[in-house]
Amino acid sequence: MFGCHIGRLFQVSVAGGSYQDGLTAVVQGAPPGLALTEQGIYADLLLRKPGADELSSPRKEPDLPVIYTGLNAADTIEGAGNRNVTNGTPITVLIPNLDRHFVHVKQYQDTNRTPRPGHASYASFMKYGPDDDAIGAGIFSGRYTSTIVAAGSIAKAILRRAGVEVFAYVKEAAGVRADDIEHATALSRVNAYRRMRCDFDPFYQEIYVRSRVTMEMRYLEKMAVFAKIEQEIDAIRDKAPAFDREAVAEKYGIDPVLNCPDLDAAEAMIEAINAITATGDSSGGVVEVVALGVPAGVGEPVFDKLDAQLGQMLGIGAVKAVEIGAGFAVKDMTGIGSNDQMHNEGGRVVFDSNNAGGITGGLTTGEPIVARLAVKPTPTIAKRQHTIDKYTLQTTELAAITRRDPTIVARVWPVAEAYTALILLDHLMMHYGYQKFRDMK
């Protein structure tokens, strides 16, 4: 299978499927000396997993990561203090599938003859034939995005060293659009949402805060604990702290259900989503990604323009369009309105606007990078639809399905954030290398 690899200097390869033994992200290009923890990676992974709120399906995968390679197993010399830091070799992150039961496999076996409209199941069957990994949609399942988030968590840690911050949030859902929020305010609220999710996630508290799994444990020791955790998933979920939505909103200054920095819009989004869900249907939306602190000049010409590379986020399942800056709105502008004029302010170049989204000619301008992703409605709906039998090609009817996400947009934003970090770090490494050789005398 081609297409499961990205990057030049910072490279990521992903593998696995929703009902295989697990999923894997292999990262190459991370520098030595970076402290990584499974707790830190899980803090990102829990943001995309289902079952955390009223907008998610009732599936229960905890997405617990294991860093399998790429870290020092012990101090390189006594007292060096560099155990569990990166050593410059490829990093492998394993994400075992801990909620894989035959009852769910049987459900897929019973329905795999009739592909769900909007899903990849018909196209993947035509490509791979009857041996297509159709149990849980395989690598075409939303589960595979956990590998992107795991790799992106590492990329974001490296980018922070370079003064670059990447964050994302829901900009629009079910036809309700948030107002523009200052980037500093949006970042602060996104970070508060992250803290809240960690504080109220029962697996984060049970596994990491209570130290059932630690970085000092060997792989086999962790797997023994994971085997026990799989039998305790329901019990652990029952340990979730009491969640008073109003109290949480007041304490953290956020909407506790939807990661949207416009708090009034977030409430309106939830109402609109729930109204559509009540009819048995689903809804889509828009995710906005922002990167702050990227220096000017990052990117490559022609085929590898940075905005073209960000367009690769169409590789995220359910994303049907990517726009940079003003995006499609430029078609209704004139040149004077579209151009981001510049002026000198205390010896510093300042732009009057940012319609370019921080990128012109495929290179960064030093302004915030802004990208938006259009996310389609969840294909799985509680309405009857007509489809075909993959083997006989006879037209048939697909029954309504109740186990589903009312909207996917609430789960796509951490994937978009991670994907953006992968692309930016790869280009930043190329940029710094190029600048170093350019400045050599």
Outline the structure in words.
The longest helix has 30 residues, at 409-438. By secondary structure, the protein is of the alpha+beta class. The protein has one domain: Chorismate synthase AroC (Chorismate synthase, AroC fold, 4-Layer Sandwich), CATH 3.60.150. Helix 4 (145-161) packs across helix 13 (409-438). A five-stranded antiparallel beta sheet has the order 1-2-3-5-4, covered by helices on one side. It has 13 helices and 16 strands. A hairpin with a 2-residue loop joins strand 12 and strand 13.
Radius of gyration: 22 Å
**Residue share in β-strands:** 15-25%
For this structure, what is the CATH class? Alpha Beta
Q: In the CATH scheme, what's the topology name?
A: Chorismate synthase, AroC fold
Measured between the Cα atoms of the first and last residue, the distance is 45 Å
Named CATH architecture:
4-Layer Sandwich
CATH superfamily: Chorismate synthase AroC
Helix content: 25-40%
Number of domains: 1
SS content category? alpha+beta
| Annotation field: number of helices | 13
- SSE topology string: EEEHEEHHHEEHHHHHHEHEHEEEEEEEH
Please give the largest β-sheet. 5 strands, antiparallel
Mean pLDDT: 91
Set out the fold topology:
Elements (H helix, E strand, L loop, with lengths): L4 E2 L4 E6 L5 E7 L9 H8 L20 E4 L21 E6 L5 H10 L9 H8 L16 H17 L3 E9 L2 E2 L5 H18 L1 H8 L9 H13 L1 H5 L7 H8 L10 H15 L7 E8 L13 H5 L8 E6 L10 H4 L3 E4 L2 E4 L7 E2 L2 E2 L4 E7 L9 E4 L6 E4 L10 H30 L3
Antiparallel strand pairs: 1-2, 2-3, 3-5, 4-5, 6-7, 6-8, 8-14, 9-14, 10-11, 12-13, 15-16
